[in-house]
């Protein structure tokens, strides 16, 4: 009798906690959008002073060390399960993803590269459907259609581009991120674990893979100017450690489709930052595409809040 009386209140408490975590996850995505969005300008600009593999290895290694140190200071458990899956996650999410976007930025604009990387949702939604049965319903279809149209207007596939290889690498980075998203959901399903240690360990695995790549691939010597150090600090603290933690936290409390669609705010910030700081002024079609993506973000946010 007492058990039955307590069950409804326990269910209400769980539902309230779930709604609170969902709101926090949406806020986490907003913070990630600002930190990652501006970082496209930073990553593009710093290539004047360092090679892409060297910078990717340094920023992710420092980010991993920072997170592991934070775990120690907070006295949080550092042991995790599913080491094989975490290693795969790190190679995809931190290693391949970071290297591909950094190389793509060598010859591609910061804003355009950020947009191309965010073809990720169009990979992850069918993957999540096939792997976990996460179907797209209702207003999410409208958001997906608006975002797709926005990306088409930004990419202008009917024109020829001299930087085709850069664009291809950016799209491949989006594919790696989509695969990493599915692996992260796979880990959560079978081995529930906190976002912070998962972020730290996957980042360390990815950083080690990048260190190996930097050792194998010859690059120009690093120029130790102030901007290089500032970019390294920004990337290690804000754009790598903090942003990946916010992303994984959001992924734990939102569906893969909702999280990935909401994250489309990052390239909007990237395009605006590239426009204001680097003079990468988008044309009419690109601006129209950005507006459509912004509308899609509002739609998917309303759909998520209405669950």
Which key phrases capture this entry?
307 residues, mainly alpha, 12 helices, 0% strand, globular
Give structural notes:
The protein is mostly helical and 307 residues long. It has a domain at 48-134 and 160-260. Helix content is 80%, strand content 0%. It is built from twelve helices and no strands. The protein has helices at residues 2-46, 52-73, 83-104, 110-117, 120-132, 139-155, 164-190, 195-216, 226-253, 256-262, 265-278, 284-305. Helix 1 packs antiparallel against helix 9 (226-253) and helix 6 packs antiparallel against helix 12 (284-305). The longest helix has 45 residues, at 2-46. The protein is globular and about 65 Å long. The mean pLDDT is 82.
Reconstruct the topology from this structure:
Elements: H1 2-46, H2 52-73, H3 83-104, H4 110-117, H5 120-132, H6 139-155, H7 164-190, H8 195-216, H9 226-253, H10 256-262, H11 265-278, H12 284-305
Helix pairs in contact: 1-4, 1-9, 1-11, 2-3, 2-8, 2-9, 3-7, 3-8, 4-7, 4-11, 5-7, 5-10, 6-12, 8-9
Strand-residue proportion: under 5%
Largest sheet: none
Q: Secondary-structure element sequence?
A: HHHHHHHHHHHH
Cα shape: globular
Give the overall pLDDT as a whole number: 82
Provide a count of the helices: 12
Helix/strand class: mainly alpha
Instruction: Determine the N-to-C terminus distance.
Output: 31 Å
| Strand count | 0
What is the structure about, briefly put?
The protein is mostly helical.
